[in-house]
UniProtKB/TrEMBL annotation:
The record marks D199 as: Important for catalytic activity. This is Endonuclease/exonuclease/phosphatase family protein. InterPro entries: AP_endonuc_1, Endo/exonu/phosph_ase_sf, Endo/exonuclease/phosphatase. It comes from Kaistella flava. Keywords: Endonuclease, Exonuclease, Hydrolase, Magnesium, Manganese, Metal-binding, Nuclease.
Length: 241
């Protein structure tokens, strides 16, 4: 199973073919337009299942299936935490909980970005006990900004997940420390000299054991389309997929 998260910086309908060339099974797309605006060209593959969340019809959170996986939003979805969507993913052989994330809530006085993930980690604590679990998306956060946040900063979120044996796939796979990433996922103002790592995939111990490859897109290949590069994770589900 290939899972890709990518903040497309809007107008996904015009960029879908480029990320679909990577043959994802599941796509999590931030800054994706509302389904009513998703008019793909005739040559672009259509998703087999699709969910969308947001208030701005030009920029929301889209989750796409290009395989036999189907999506069902969990009953306890808290719409006050934006944008974090807990989704049951299944294909009849395997199922897992996917938290699709675009941490961005300008209306929350307690914090717009990582604070949303912190709230989700606490609100959905019971779901985090699921053995088959993935959290992925644009967290708009990095350890280097911890000093700007007193409660629910980046390191606190990472530590809370670690206590439940939920790991950052990128950091564990490449043996890199939080805040010392060698592969950025975001270039502020599309500027090569302003790189940051703010997109993540976290997986439970059982799911991480199935990771076979992790890749971060490069500036040269993706800057034409977005200020973010995709984070691509391959899971070997064997006969389950």
């Amino acid at each position: 199973m290939k899972l890709i998260t990518w903040n497309c910086q809007g107008a996904f309908r015009k960029k879908a073919e480029f990320i679909l060339a990577r043959e994802p099974d599941i796509l999590v797309i931030q800054e994706c337009e509302h389904p009513n605006k998703l008019i793909f060209n005739s040559n672009t593959e259509r998703p087999k299942d699709f969910l969308w969340f947001g208030e701005n019809k030009n920029k929301g959170l889209g989750i796409f299936s290009y395989s036999d996986f189907t999506f069902q939003l969990t009953d306890n979805h808290n719409t006050d935490i934006k944008l974090v969507a807990p989704i049951l993913v299944t294909n009849g052989k395997t199922d897992f909980i996917l938290f699709a994330i675009w941490a961005n809530n300008r209306k929350d006085p307690q914090g717009q970005y990582i604070e949303q993930v912190w709230k989700a980690v606490n609100y959905y604590e019971h779901l985090l006990n699921n053995k088959n679990l993935i959290l992925t998306g644009d967290f708009n956060s990095n350890k280097i900004w911890d000093k700007k946040h007193r409660v629910g900063n980046h390191s606190t979120v990472v530590e809370s997940l670690l206590r439940k044996e939920i790991y950052s796939v990128y950091h564990k796979y490449f043996e890199q420390k939080q805040g010392e990433e060698k592969n950025p996922t975001f270039f502020l103002q599309r500027n090569l000299t302003k790189p940051y790592h703010i997109d993540y995939c976290f997986a439970s111990n059982e799911m991480y054991a199935k990771v076979k490859n992790v890749e971060v897109g490069t500036f040269d290949n993706w800057i034409e389309y977005s200020d973010h590069t995709p984070l691509i994770v391959d899971f070997d589900l064997g006969d389950e997929c």
